[in-house]
Design a protein that fits this description.
This protein is mainly alpha-helical and 93 residues long. The chain has helices at residues 15-26, 38-47, 65-71, 83-92, and strands spanning 31-32, 35-36.
Length: 93
């Protein structure tokens, strides 16, 4: 008896377009030619005193942070399994 292997999608969903659409529905005044107008957004937030200055801003940094974010596109579509996922797969066989 042969078992069929279910094909799975190996790419991640591009959520940027979905998030930009949501943002444009909420804040249409900050969208220009399909892109976020950061100057208008920053001016709006500055008027509302909603921008954090440097001493109030929380940052999370570590050595190699910039390089690690540059590597993210290289891992698109790679599936990382946890031990629980592996156990589930083995039980299904």
């Amino acid at each position: 008896m042969s078992k069929s292997v279910a094909k799975i999608k190996t790419t991640s969903k591009d959520i940027f377009a979905d998030e930009l659409k949501k943002f444009s529905q909420i804040f249409p005044q900050f969208i220009s030619e399909g892109k976020v107008d950061f100057d208008a957004l920053q001016a709006f937030l500055a008027d509302k005193d909603a921008l954090a200055d440097e001493k109030d801003k929380y940052t999370f940094t570590w050595a190699g942070k910039k390089q690690s974010f540059l590597l993210i596109p290289l891992f698109d579509g790679i599936i990382f399994l946890t031990a629980c996922d592996v156990d589930c797969i083995l039980k299904c066989e």
